[in-house]
UniProtKB/TrEMBL annotation:
Family: Belongs to the glycosyltransferase 2 family.
A molecular function (GO) term: glycosyltransferase activity
Record's protein name: Glycosyltransferase family 2 protein
PANTHER family: POLY-BETA-1,6-N-ACETYL-D-GLUCOSAMINE SYNTHASE
Record keywords: Glycosyltransferase, Membrane, Transferase, Transmembrane, Transmembrane helix
InterPro entries: Nucleotide-diphossugar_trans (IPR029044)
Residues passing through the membrane, by range: 20-48, 313-331, 337-360, 381-401
Protein backbone atom coordinates (compact mmCIF):
# COMPACT_ATOMS: atom_id res chain seq x y z
CA UNK A 1 0.00 0.00 0.00
CA UNK A 2 2.86 2.39 0.82
CA UNK A 3 4.42 1.58 -2.55
CA UNK A 4 1.13 2.37 -4.26
CA UNK A 5 0.93 5.73 -2.49
CA UNK A 6 4.48 6.67 -3.55
CA UNK A 7 3.91 5.64 -7.17
CA UNK A 8 0.60 7.51 -7.31
CA UNK A 9 1.94 10.94 -6.27
CA UNK A 10 2.05 12.25 -9.89
CA UNK A 11 -1.47 10.89 -10.42
CA UNK A 12 -2.71 12.73 -7.31
CA UNK A 13 -1.17 15.99 -8.56
CA UNK A 14 -2.61 15.67 -12.09
CA UNK A 15 -6.10 14.71 -10.91
CA UNK A 16 -5.91 17.35 -8.20
CA UNK A 17 -5.68 20.06 -10.84
CA UNK A 18 -9.14 19.00 -12.03
CA UNK A 19 -10.96 18.22 -8.76
CA UNK A 20 -8.62 19.58 -5.99
CA UNK A 21 -6.03 17.47 -4.21
CA UNK A 22 -8.25 16.38 -1.24
CA UNK A 23 -10.91 15.06 -3.63
CA UNK A 24 -8.24 13.36 -5.75
CA UNK A 25 -6.86 11.60 -2.66
CA UNK A 26 -10.40 10.54 -1.68
CA UNK A 27 -11.06 9.07 -5.14
CA UNK A 28 -7.69 7.36 -5.53
CA UNK A 29 -7.99 5.87 -2.04
CA UNK A 30 -11.20 4.15 -3.17
CA UNK A 31 -9.79 3.13 -6.54
CA UNK A 32 -6.31 1.95 -5.57
CA UNK A 33 -5.13 2.24 -1.98
CA UNK A 34 -7.82 0.33 -0.07
CA UNK A 35 -8.49 -2.31 -2.78
CA UNK A 36 -4.75 -2.88 -3.09
CA UNK A 37 -4.38 -3.30 0.66
CA UNK A 38 -7.34 -5.69 0.90
CA UNK A 39 -6.10 -7.83 -2.00
CA UNK A 40 -2.58 -8.00 -0.58
CA UNK A 41 -3.93 -8.86 2.86
CA UNK A 42 -6.02 -11.69 1.40
CA UNK A 43 -3.22 -13.09 -0.76
CA UNK A 44 -0.61 -13.11 2.03
CA UNK A 45 -3.10 -14.58 4.51
CA UNK A 46 -4.01 -17.41 2.12
CA UNK A 47 -0.33 -18.21 1.49
CA UNK A 48 0.07 -18.78 5.23
CA UNK A 49 -3.24 -20.59 5.67
CA UNK A 50 -3.03 -24.27 6.57
CA UNK A 51 -6.37 -25.96 7.23
CA UNK A 52 -6.14 -28.01 10.45
CA UNK A 53 -6.63 -31.75 10.08
CA UNK A 54 -9.75 -33.66 11.06
CA UNK A 55 -9.80 -35.39 14.42
CA UNK A 56 -12.27 -37.82 12.89
CA UNK A 57 -13.25 -38.39 9.27
CA UNK A 58 -16.20 -40.67 10.06
CA UNK A 59 -18.51 -38.97 12.56
CA UNK A 60 -21.87 -40.57 13.32
CA UNK A 61 -23.76 -37.83 15.15
CA UNK A 62 -27.41 -37.61 13.97
CA UNK A 63 -28.04 -34.52 11.87
CA UNK A 64 -31.13 -32.77 10.49
CA UNK A 65 -31.24 -31.18 7.03
CA UNK A 66 -33.69 -28.29 6.60
CA UNK A 67 -34.81 -27.50 3.05
CA UNK A 68 -37.02 -24.42 2.64
CA UNK A 69 -38.91 -24.60 -0.68
CA UNK A 70 -40.98 -22.29 -2.82
CA UNK A 71 -42.18 -23.83 -6.10
CA UNK A 72 -39.33 -26.35 -6.33
CA UNK A 73 -41.35 -29.23 -7.79
CA UNK A 74 -38.82 -29.74 -10.61
CA UNK A 75 -35.61 -29.21 -8.63
CA UNK A 76 -36.22 -30.97 -5.33
CA UNK A 77 -35.75 -34.45 -6.81
CA UNK A 78 -32.01 -34.07 -7.55
CA UNK A 79 -31.45 -32.51 -4.13
CA UNK A 80 -33.06 -35.46 -2.33
CA UNK A 81 -31.35 -38.02 -4.57
CA UNK A 82 -27.94 -36.65 -3.63
CA UNK A 83 -28.81 -36.72 0.06
CA UNK A 84 -29.65 -40.42 -0.39
CA UNK A 85 -26.15 -40.98 -1.85
CA UNK A 86 -24.27 -39.52 1.13
CA UNK A 87 -21.55 -41.71 2.65
CA UNK A 88 -22.42 -40.44 6.12
CA UNK A 89 -22.81 -43.26 8.67
CA UNK A 90 -24.93 -41.26 11.11
CA UNK A 91 -28.69 -40.76 10.90
CA UNK A 92 -29.89 -38.03 8.52
CA UNK A 93 -33.32 -36.55 9.20
CA UNK A 94 -34.80 -34.34 6.48
CA UNK A 95 -37.36 -31.59 7.03
CA UNK A 96 -38.81 -30.04 3.86
CA UNK A 97 -40.73 -26.81 4.45
CA UNK A 98 -43.19 -25.84 1.73
CA UNK A 99 -43.25 -22.04 1.95
CA UNK A 100 -46.62 -21.30 0.34
CA UNK A 101 -45.82 -23.00 -2.98
CA UNK A 102 -48.37 -23.02 -5.79
CA UNK A 103 -47.09 -26.26 -7.35
CA UNK A 104 -46.69 -29.85 -6.11
CA UNK A 105 -43.41 -29.33 -4.23
CA UNK A 106 -44.61 -30.93 -0.99
CA UNK A 107 -46.18 -33.96 -2.69
CA UNK A 108 -43.13 -34.60 -4.90
CA UNK A 109 -40.77 -34.28 -1.92
CA UNK A 110 -42.78 -36.71 0.22
CA UNK A 111 -43.19 -39.31 -2.52
CA UNK A 112 -39.55 -39.20 -3.60
CA UNK A 113 -38.31 -39.24 -0.01
CA UNK A 114 -40.32 -42.39 0.67
CA UNK A 115 -39.07 -44.02 -2.55
CA UNK A 116 -35.45 -43.29 -1.60
CA UNK A 117 -35.93 -44.58 1.92
CA UNK A 118 -35.19 -41.21 3.52
CA UNK A 119 -36.33 -40.12 6.97
CA UNK A 120 -38.36 -37.17 5.70
CA UNK A 121 -40.94 -34.84 7.22
CA UNK A 122 -42.85 -32.24 5.17
CA UNK A 123 -44.10 -29.06 6.85
CA UNK A 124 -46.14 -26.14 5.54
CA UNK A 125 -45.53 -22.45 6.24
CA UNK A 126 -47.96 -20.02 4.62
CA UNK A 127 -46.15 -16.81 5.59
CA UNK A 128 -43.72 -15.99 2.72
CA UNK A 129 -40.09 -15.68 3.75
CA UNK A 130 -37.26 -18.14 4.16
CA UNK A 131 -36.75 -17.15 7.78
CA UNK A 132 -40.34 -18.05 8.66
CA UNK A 133 -39.99 -21.45 6.97
CA UNK A 134 -36.72 -22.28 8.73
CA UNK A 135 -37.94 -21.10 12.13
CA UNK A 136 -40.98 -23.33 11.84
CA UNK A 137 -38.75 -26.32 11.10
CA UNK A 138 -36.44 -25.37 13.98
CA UNK A 139 -39.19 -26.31 16.43
CA UNK A 140 -39.08 -29.88 15.11
CA UNK A 141 -35.29 -30.34 15.19
CA UNK A 142 -34.15 -32.79 17.87
CA UNK A 143 -30.57 -33.36 16.73
CA UNK A 144 -27.43 -31.64 18.03
CA UNK A 145 -26.61 -30.32 14.54
CA UNK A 146 -28.72 -29.03 11.69
CA UNK A 147 -27.82 -28.26 8.08
CA UNK A 148 -29.67 -25.76 5.90
CA UNK A 149 -29.76 -26.62 2.22
CA UNK A 150 -31.37 -24.81 -0.70
CA UNK A 151 -33.75 -26.83 -2.83
CA UNK A 152 -31.73 -26.14 -5.98
CA UNK A 153 -28.45 -27.27 -4.38
CA UNK A 154 -27.01 -30.79 -4.61
CA UNK A 155 -24.40 -32.30 -2.31
CA UNK A 156 -21.16 -34.05 -3.16
CA UNK A 157 -21.32 -37.60 -1.77
CA UNK A 158 -18.86 -36.72 1.04
CA UNK A 159 -20.43 -33.34 1.83
CA UNK A 160 -22.34 -34.12 5.04
CA UNK A 161 -19.53 -36.29 6.44
CA UNK A 162 -16.88 -33.62 5.93
CA UNK A 163 -19.07 -30.82 7.26
CA UNK A 164 -19.89 -32.71 10.46
CA UNK A 165 -16.26 -33.89 10.75
CA UNK A 166 -15.07 -30.28 10.74
CA UNK A 167 -17.54 -29.39 13.48
CA UNK A 168 -16.61 -32.47 15.54
CA UNK A 169 -12.92 -31.54 15.16
CA UNK A 170 -13.44 -27.89 16.16
CA UNK A 171 -13.26 -26.25 19.59
CA UNK A 172 -16.46 -26.00 21.62
CA UNK A 173 -16.92 -22.28 20.84
CA UNK A 174 -17.37 -23.03 17.12
CA UNK A 175 -21.12 -22.98 16.49
CA UNK A 176 -21.33 -23.11 12.69
CA UNK A 177 -19.40 -24.37 9.68
CA UNK A 178 -20.01 -22.96 6.21
CA UNK A 179 -19.71 -25.40 3.35
CA UNK A 180 -18.20 -24.60 -0.05
CA UNK A 181 -20.88 -23.78 -2.62
CA UNK A 182 -19.90 -24.05 -6.29
CA UNK A 183 -21.77 -23.64 -9.58
CA UNK A 184 -23.61 -26.54 -11.18
CA UNK A 185 -25.15 -24.91 -14.29
CA UNK A 186 -22.07 -23.10 -15.62
CA UNK A 187 -22.62 -24.28 -19.20
CA UNK A 188 -25.91 -22.45 -19.72
CA UNK A 189 -24.63 -19.01 -20.81
CA UNK A 190 -21.87 -16.41 -20.37
CA UNK A 191 -23.31 -15.12 -17.09
CA UNK A 192 -23.19 -18.57 -15.52
CA UNK A 193 -19.64 -19.10 -16.83
CA UNK A 194 -18.43 -15.94 -15.08
CA UNK A 195 -20.17 -16.88 -11.84
CA UNK A 196 -18.47 -20.29 -11.90
CA UNK A 197 -15.13 -18.53 -11.34
CA UNK A 198 -16.61 -16.15 -8.79
CA UNK A 199 -17.77 -19.07 -6.64
CA UNK A 200 -14.67 -21.17 -7.33
CA UNK A 201 -12.06 -18.45 -6.72
CA UNK A 202 -13.62 -15.31 -5.28
CA UNK A 203 -16.20 -16.43 -2.74
CA UNK A 204 -14.30 -19.56 -1.67
CA UNK A 205 -11.11 -17.55 -1.11
CA UNK A 206 -12.84 -14.87 0.94
CA UNK A 207 -14.34 -17.58 3.14
CA UNK A 208 -10.93 -19.22 3.52
CA UNK A 209 -9.49 -15.88 4.59
CA UNK A 210 -12.26 -15.31 7.12
CA UNK A 211 -12.06 -18.90 8.33
CA UNK A 212 -8.32 -18.49 8.95
CA UNK A 213 -9.21 -15.79 11.50
CA UNK A 214 -12.07 -17.97 12.85
CA UNK A 215 -14.69 -15.47 11.83
CA UNK A 216 -16.39 -16.58 8.61
CA UNK A 217 -18.87 -13.74 8.12
CA UNK A 218 -21.61 -15.73 6.39
CA UNK A 219 -22.57 -19.29 7.16
CA UNK A 220 -24.74 -19.20 4.04
CA UNK A 221 -28.23 -20.62 4.18
CA UNK A 222 -27.64 -22.45 0.90
CA UNK A 223 -25.39 -24.98 2.64
CA UNK A 224 -24.07 -24.68 6.21
CA UNK A 225 -24.09 -26.61 9.46
CA UNK A 226 -25.10 -25.12 12.83
CA UNK A 227 -25.27 -26.17 16.46
CA UNK A 228 -29.03 -26.34 17.02
CA UNK A 229 -28.91 -25.01 20.58
CA UNK A 230 -26.98 -21.90 19.49
CA UNK A 231 -29.45 -21.11 16.68
CA UNK A 232 -32.23 -21.30 19.28
CA UNK A 233 -30.17 -19.23 21.73
CA UNK A 234 -30.00 -16.26 19.31
CA UNK A 235 -33.70 -16.56 18.47
CA UNK A 236 -33.50 -18.38 15.15
CA UNK A 237 -33.36 -16.74 11.73
CA UNK A 238 -34.18 -13.01 11.78
CA UNK A 239 -36.76 -11.30 9.57
CA UNK A 240 -34.18 -9.86 7.18
CA UNK A 241 -33.48 -10.19 3.47
CA UNK A 242 -29.99 -11.37 4.43
CA UNK A 243 -31.19 -13.65 7.20
CA UNK A 244 -28.09 -15.87 7.06
CA UNK A 245 -25.73 -12.87 7.28
CA UNK A 246 -27.49 -11.36 10.30
CA UNK A 247 -27.70 -14.79 11.97
CA UNK A 248 -23.95 -15.36 11.55
CA UNK A 249 -23.07 -11.94 12.92
CA UNK A 250 -25.31 -12.67 15.92
CA UNK A 251 -23.17 -15.76 16.60
CA UNK A 252 -19.98 -13.71 16.38
CA UNK A 253 -21.43 -11.03 18.65
CA UNK A 254 -21.93 -13.67 21.36
CA UNK A 255 -18.25 -14.67 21.06
CA UNK A 256 -18.89 -17.85 19.10
CA UNK A 257 -16.65 -18.78 16.19
CA UNK A 258 -17.64 -19.77 12.64
CA UNK A 259 -15.49 -22.00 10.45
CA UNK A 260 -15.36 -22.79 6.75
CA UNK A 261 -14.73 -26.26 5.32
CA UNK A 262 -13.49 -26.08 1.69
CA UNK A 263 -13.74 -29.84 1.10
CA UNK A 264 -17.44 -30.03 2.05
CA UNK A 265 -18.82 -29.14 -1.37
CA UNK A 266 -22.29 -28.53 -2.75
CA UNK A 267 -23.27 -27.42 -6.25
CA UNK A 268 -26.00 -24.86 -6.84
CA UNK A 269 -27.81 -23.34 -9.81
CA UNK A 270 -26.88 -19.68 -10.28
CA UNK A 271 -29.05 -17.09 -12.08
CA UNK A 272 -28.68 -17.20 -15.86
CA UNK A 273 -31.09 -14.32 -16.40
CA UNK A 274 -29.41 -10.96 -15.81
CA UNK A 275 -32.45 -9.57 -14.03
CA UNK A 276 -32.46 -12.48 -11.58
CA UNK A 277 -28.70 -12.08 -11.09
CA UNK A 278 -29.16 -8.40 -10.20
CA UNK A 279 -31.88 -9.29 -7.72
CA UNK A 280 -29.72 -11.92 -6.03
CA UNK A 281 -26.53 -9.89 -5.74
CA UNK A 282 -28.27 -6.66 -4.75
CA UNK A 283 -30.04 -8.72 -2.07
CA UNK A 284 -26.64 -9.87 -0.79
CA UNK A 285 -25.41 -6.26 -0.66
CA UNK A 286 -28.58 -5.18 1.10
CA UNK A 287 -28.17 -8.04 3.56
CA UNK A 288 -24.70 -6.77 4.47
CA UNK A 289 -26.15 -3.34 5.30
CA UNK A 290 -28.84 -5.01 7.42
CA UNK A 291 -26.14 -6.86 9.34
CA UNK A 292 -24.11 -3.67 9.87
CA UNK A 293 -27.20 -1.91 11.23
CA UNK A 294 -28.19 -4.71 13.60
CA UNK A 295 -24.75 -5.83 14.79
CA UNK A 296 -22.19 -3.02 14.88
CA UNK A 297 -18.58 -4.13 14.14
CA UNK A 298 -17.27 -2.38 17.26
CA UNK A 299 -19.68 -4.48 19.34
CA UNK A 300 -17.93 -7.68 18.28
CA UNK A 301 -16.01 -9.10 21.25
CA UNK A 302 -13.06 -10.58 19.30
CA UNK A 303 -10.51 -8.38 17.58
CA UNK A 304 -10.38 -10.49 14.40
CA UNK A 305 -14.14 -10.45 13.83
CA UNK A 306 -14.18 -6.75 14.72
CA UNK A 307 -11.65 -6.19 11.95
CA UNK A 308 -13.37 -8.45 9.41
CA UNK A 309 -16.88 -7.07 9.97
CA UNK A 310 -15.45 -3.55 10.15
CA UNK A 311 -13.91 -4.03 6.69
CA UNK A 312 -17.46 -4.16 5.33
CA UNK A 313 -17.96 -0.55 6.39
CA UNK A 314 -15.77 0.59 3.48
CA UNK A 315 -17.45 -1.62 0.86
CA UNK A 316 -20.23 0.84 -0.07
CA UNK A 317 -17.61 3.58 -0.47
CA UNK A 318 -15.46 1.35 -2.71
CA UNK A 319 -18.43 0.29 -4.83
CA UNK A 320 -19.64 3.87 -5.24
CA UNK A 321 -16.18 5.07 -6.32
CA UNK A 322 -15.75 2.12 -8.68
CA UNK A 323 -19.19 2.67 -10.22
CA UNK A 324 -19.21 6.45 -10.60
CA UNK A 325 -15.49 7.18 -11.01
CA UNK A 326 -13.46 4.17 -12.17
CA UNK A 327 -15.87 2.85 -14.82
CA UNK A 328 -16.47 6.30 -16.43
CA UNK A 329 -12.71 6.95 -16.19
CA UNK A 330 -12.00 3.72 -18.04
CA UNK A 331 -14.27 4.74 -20.91
CA UNK A 332 -12.77 8.24 -21.01
CA UNK A 333 -9.31 6.71 -21.41
CA UNK A 334 -10.45 5.18 -24.71
CA UNK A 335 -10.74 8.74 -26.04
CA UNK A 336 -7.38 9.90 -24.67
CA UNK A 337 -8.52 11.37 -21.35
CA UNK A 338 -6.27 9.64 -18.79
CA UNK A 339 -7.58 11.33 -15.66
CA UNK A 340 -8.57 8.07 -13.92
CA UNK A 341 -7.24 5.21 -16.05
CA UNK A 342 -4.42 5.07 -18.55
CA UNK A 343 -1.81 2.81 -20.16
CA UNK A 344 -0.24 2.05 -16.76
CA UNK A 345 -3.55 0.51 -15.71
CA UNK A 346 -2.56 -2.55 -17.76
CA UNK A 347 0.11 -3.35 -15.14
CA UNK A 348 -2.74 -4.39 -12.85
CA UNK A 349 -3.52 -7.38 -15.09
CA UNK A 350 -0.40 -9.47 -14.30
CA UNK A 351 -1.04 -8.95 -10.58
CA UNK A 352 -4.68 -10.01 -10.97
CA UNK A 353 -3.67 -13.11 -12.93
CA UNK A 354 -1.00 -14.01 -10.34
CA UNK A 355 -3.47 -13.63 -7.47
CA UNK A 356 -6.06 -15.80 -9.16
CA UNK A 357 -3.41 -18.39 -10.06
CA UNK A 358 -2.50 -18.78 -6.37
CA UNK A 359 -6.18 -19.20 -5.53
CA UNK A 360 -6.64 -21.66 -8.41
CA UNK A 361 -3.74 -23.87 -7.25
CA UNK A 362 -5.30 -24.29 -3.83
CA UNK A 363 -8.76 -25.04 -5.21
CA UNK A 364 -7.25 -27.55 -7.61
CA UNK A 365 -5.78 -29.42 -4.63
CA UNK A 366 -9.22 -29.55 -2.98
CA UNK A 367 -10.76 -30.97 -6.15
CA UNK A 368 -8.03 -33.60 -6.47
CA UNK A 369 -8.68 -34.70 -2.88
CA UNK A 370 -12.34 -35.26 -3.79
CA UNK A 371 -11.59 -36.86 -7.19
CA UNK A 372 -13.28 -33.99 -9.00
CA UNK A 373 -12.20 -32.37 -12.25
CA UNK A 374 -12.16 -28.64 -13.00
CA UNK A 375 -14.17 -27.73 -16.07
CA UNK A 376 -12.39 -25.86 -18.86
CA UNK A 377 -13.82 -22.39 -18.90
CA UNK A 378 -11.15 -20.01 -20.24
CA UNK A 379 -13.56 -17.46 -21.71
CA UNK A 380 -15.42 -17.29 -18.43
CA UNK A 381 -12.15 -16.83 -16.55
CA UNK A 382 -10.97 -13.85 -18.61
CA UNK A 383 -14.41 -12.27 -18.46
CA UNK A 384 -14.30 -12.77 -14.68
CA UNK A 385 -10.86 -11.14 -14.33
CA UNK A 386 -11.52 -8.26 -16.76
CA UNK A 387 -15.23 -7.45 -16.46
CA UNK A 388 -16.86 -8.97 -13.41
CA UNK A 389 -16.25 -6.10 -11.01
CA UNK A 390 -17.75 -3.70 -13.56
CA UNK A 391 -20.97 -5.67 -13.19
CA UNK A 392 -20.82 -6.32 -9.46
CA UNK A 393 -20.13 -2.81 -8.15
CA UNK A 394 -23.16 -1.14 -9.82
CA UNK A 395 -25.37 -4.05 -8.71
CA UNK A 396 -24.10 -3.71 -5.14
CA UNK A 397 -24.72 0.04 -5.22
CA UNK A 398 -28.31 -0.68 -6.24
CA UNK A 399 -28.62 -3.03 -3.26
CA UNK A 400 -27.33 -0.35 -0.86
CA UNK A 401 -29.79 2.17 -2.28
CA UNK A 402 -32.66 -0.30 -1.91
CA UNK A 403 -31.94 -0.58 1.81
CA UNK A 404 -31.52 3.18 2.25
CA UNK A 405 -34.83 3.83 0.45
CA UNK A 406 -36.49 0.90 2.29
CA UNK A 407 -37.79 -0.60 -0.95
CA UNK A 408 -39.91 -3.73 -0.94
CA UNK A 409 -37.94 -6.93 -0.37
CA UNK A 410 -37.80 -9.39 -3.27
CA UNK A 411 -36.45 -12.88 -2.45
CA UNK A 412 -36.73 -14.39 -5.93
Amino acid sequence: MLMSIIISIPWVKDLGELVTVPVAILLITGIAYIPGYLNAFMLVSLLFDKQPGFKTLHPAEPVSILIACWNEEKGIDSTLQQIAKQDYTGEIRIIVIDNNSTDLTALVAKQLGDELGLNIKVLFEKKPGKNFALNKALRYVETKYLITLDADTVLHTQAVRRLVARMESAPQEVCAVAGAVLVRNSRENWLARIQEWDYFLGIASIKRLQGLYQGTLVAQGAYSLYRTEVVKEVGGWPDAIGEDIVLTWSFLEKNYKVYFEPTAIAFTDVPTNFRHFVRQRSRWARGMIEALKQVKPWQQPRIFTRYLTGSNLVMPYLDFVYTFVWIPGLFLSLFGFYWIAGPQTLFVLPLALLTNYVLYRYQKGVFQELNLGIRKNRKGFFLYVLCYQMIMSPVSVWGYLQEVMRLRRVWK
